[in-house]
Structure of Serine hydrolase:
Amino acid sequence: MFKFTLLLSLILFSCQFSKCQKTFITMHDTIISLYNKDDFKGIYNFASESMKTEEPEAKFVNMLKTTKEQTGKIISSTSLGEYGITRSFMWTGEHGNIHFDLQSGTPGVMDDYFINDVIMQPGGEHRSLPTDNPLRSKIDSIIQQAATLYMQNPNTVALSVGIVYKGQKYAYNYGETQKNSGQLPSSDNYYCLGSIAKTFIATLLAKAVTEKKVNLNDDIRKYLPGKYPDLTYKGYPVRLVHLTNHTSGLPTSPDALPPGLSRLQQLKIFEKYNRDSLLDDLHHFRPDTLPGVKYVYNGNAFHILMLILEEVYHQPYEKLMTAFLRTELNMYHTKNFFSVNEKKMLLQGYNNHSEPQTYYYPMTAFRGGPAINSTLNDMLIYLKANIGEKSPAIKLTHQYTWGNKDGSSMGLGWMRNLDAAGKQYIMHSGNAGAGFNSLCLFYPERELGIVIMVNETTGQNRLFALERLITQQLK
């Protein structure tokens, strides 16, 4: 009887699986058909309600229009495998190919998708690829294959990839420090990390919490010199935690920075923008919604947090950060400001058309969005420390503070989510106007982390694609 029941269960499961698989394939084939007809709104109709909430139809349609211009019509589709509820495909187009990931937990419904060009392209295999990869281990081979696909894009220049896996560190460098220089980047070259700096600032705040100097639920006005009666919304104050998870409701840029300015015009304003300028702006800032409720990405909030940390510790932010990195993490090459010799180790940055970008030496820590410079070797230390969570301050930054606990949410500075297999990952990406992109991402349960740094801006989605190509093969 038991054997019969088990056999019947297996038959029913097999039929259900076969039906789901058929529904998935039908949806995938229909999406290609609609894509070829330029019916991008028709594709959007497959989206789940949660996906529609996160991505408006207009944004989705514009993205597919741009992609279609690069690929032309899709001629064929090849399955690349499955990962959890996500299936990967290579779409071969008239002009170019794309990697298409389709996530579906409910038959006939698109829960999420991911499109990128980090896939074999016509003629891409012919590009020479300088590297220090020794090609001796399985991890070496995985990195080599993924890097080769990433570097097919003619607008790529240098690529540095760091892996921490089960306590071991691996470093790989590709390309050139500057176009046509023939100089391979090393793990001691500097990249500008852009917004990954926010995780460092949040860690300093977490350190202050563990030292009982502040409480995350403190009203920010407690630490600001002077009176700021307008820093509330209907009597509800902005709290420290709101600054770290982008829910403060405060303006996202200084008063001195009107919309529509060029990057050069913005930099000229920030040359003179300092802590006194920010304190003056704070007298005019008002939350536009109840703090702690609505997420709006806000680099300006982290400048306020930097100012508060200076008040708490009675030291300049740069001195605070340098001391923390050196004494607690043994990181000596992560900094805002360069010496003359250190600046020579900074890679040349490029935009997405291979045009060199000027790196403007910051005159103040409050310039633009918070940013920081680092090397691959230093970032591997940082990555390992975050995976290990031996530091109480670092561990605190990973704790939930806002959002969907079972999906997209915030820690302190860090962004949290689940991958297609239901495994939690914690991450932050960075984009610097001087021609740099970066990604720092780790899976605590898997004891796995990756840092990717490039000196071009061909797209942050390409870094996420590279991350997936690598981490999904490390088991």
Remarks:
- The domain at 15-116 is CATH 3.10.450.590 (Nuclear Transport Factor 2; Chain: A,).
- The chain is about 35% helix and 20% strand.
- The CA atoms of residues 55 and 405 lie 19 Å apart.
